[in-house]
Amino acid sequence: MHVLLVEDHPDLAANLGDFLGNHGHSVDFAADGPSGLRLAQAQRFDAIVLDRLLPGLDGASVCRRLRASSSRHVPLLMLTAMDTVNDRVEGLRAGADDYLVKPFAMVELLARLEALHRRATAAGLDRVLTLGDLEFDLDTLIARRGGETISLTPALRKLLELLMRDTHRVVTREELERRLWGDAPPEGDVLRAHIYALRVAIDKPWPKKLLHTIHGSGYRLADLGDD
């Protein structure tokens, strides 16, 4: 899983990040509410761990705004030291999928995250991939950026899906070729041509570029801030 952890306690954030990383998951961090909301809206995550009490914007407000602004339902686990029924109810009504009271066992947090992710996948909630103002609906096969529909060939739609599912990392040329064509890639540098065509389609009309070539490594589709 690619997890967003929004937690203002640095020791807890570091321990959670190490634990999740040791179990094969990648983690992005935010230490306050506004930063967590921006990251959650700009990138694709498989799950979010959100502290209830945060500087700048509390966890319930972050959750509420995220649910209102995104067409994709990301499984969200809320952490809190506030252990009253009303506190838990408020968090759930704000849009949290589960609630864990501090102090907690790391293995329980992991089990809850994995269960949330399984349920979301089984329910088909992850059918609209989003990155900033770019979205791709896997059911209708319609891609849009800034609300404008983007025309793509079947091969470019597949390439876009692969890159949008891995916005947290660089995807190597070899991996893309294997996932696009299996063990029989076409002759010539067809992948480079597809990357160029995709870049023209999703980036050329807009000032902010999302498709990045990482020289010597591969490609990454990501919102890396101001160009």
Query: Which strand order do you get reading across the main beta sheet?
Result: 2-1-3-4-5
Q: What gross morphology would you assign?
A: elongated
- Listing every helix as H and every strand as E from the N terminus to the C terminus, the arrangement reads EHEHEHEHEHEEEEHEHHEE
The total strand number stands at: 12
**Rg (C-alpha, Å):** 19 Å
The named CATH superfamily of the largest domain: Response regulator
Write a structural description.
41% of the residues lie in helices and 22% in strands. The protein contains eight helices and twelve strands. It has helices spanning 10-22, 33-42, 59-69, 85-94, 106-122, 154-164, 173-181, 190-202, and strands at residues 2-6, 26-30, 47-51, 76-80, 98-101, 128-131, 134-137, 142-145, 148-150, 171-172, 211-214, 218-221.
Element layout with pairings:
Blueprint: E1 2-6, H1 10-22, E2 26-30, H2 33-42, E3 47-51, H3 59-69, E4 76-80, H4 85-94, E5 98-101, H5 106-122, E6 128-131, E7 134-137, E8 142-145, E9 148-150, H6 154-164, E10 171-172, H7 173-181, H8 190-202, E11 211-214, E12 218-221
Parallel strand pairs: 1-2, 1-3, 3-4, 4-5
Antiparallel strand pairs: 6-7, 7-8, 8-9, 10-12, 11-12
Helix pairs in contact: 2-3, 6-8
Short description:
The protein is α/β, with parallel strands linked by helices. The chain is built from eight helices and twelve strands.
